Automatic annotation (TrEMBL):
GO terms for molecular function: RNA binding. It comes from the Eukaryota. SUPFAM superfamilies: AlbA-like (SSF82704). Residues 117-129 have a biased composition (Basic and acidic residues). Residues 113-135 are annotated as: Disordered. Residues 20-82 form the DNA/RNA-binding protein Alba-like domain. InterPro entries: Alba-like_dom_sf, DNA/RNA-bd_Alba-like, UCP030333_Alba. This is DNA/RNA-binding protein Alba-like domain-containing protein.
Length: 135
């Protein structure tokens, strides 16, 4: 019992909880919610880990490809595995596929994000200018 207590005391919290991990579901949030969240995580932590089970794997791959194709991210690591879970309807154990994709910032990530922010601000100014002219 002492070994277990010692192991728990020495356990690194970041092993079980990572600040830069996004666990993706394809039922809870729209795709671009996760894309924008991943951008924010990369700004804060320089990298983001996207994780999904089963049918949500396609969503994670799509998010990673959007970030890569826009020049914002590079793949650092991809891990696939299976996870034992209990089937809710039948009550028996089943295996689910799992994927974890670690993405890092590209060299020009910050300037691309700054350019996108400037474009959004210009768009807002144009919208506000149009509103003032109409009234």
């Amino acid at each position: 019992m002492e070994e277990v207590t010692e192991g728990v005391n020495n356990m690194n919290i970041s092993d079980s909880y990572k600040k830069n991990r996004i666990q993706v579901s394809n039922t809870k949030k729209p795709l671009f919610f996760y894309v924008n969240l991943a951008k924010r995580y990369m700004q804060q932590h320089n990298e983001v880990e996207l994780s999904a089970l089963g049918m949500a794997i396609a969503t994670v791959v799509t998010i990673a490809e959007i970030l890569k194709n826009n020049g914002l991210a590079v793949e650092k690591k991809i891990v696939t595995s299976t996870v034992d879970m209990k089937d809710e309807s039948r009550g028996r154990p089943v295996q689910k596929a799992k994927i974890e994709i670690l993405l890092g910032k590209t060299a020009n990530f910050d300037e691309l994000m700054a350019a996108a922010q400037e474009e959004r601000e210009r768009e807002r100014e144009r919208e506000n200018g149009d509103v003032e002219e109409q009234s």
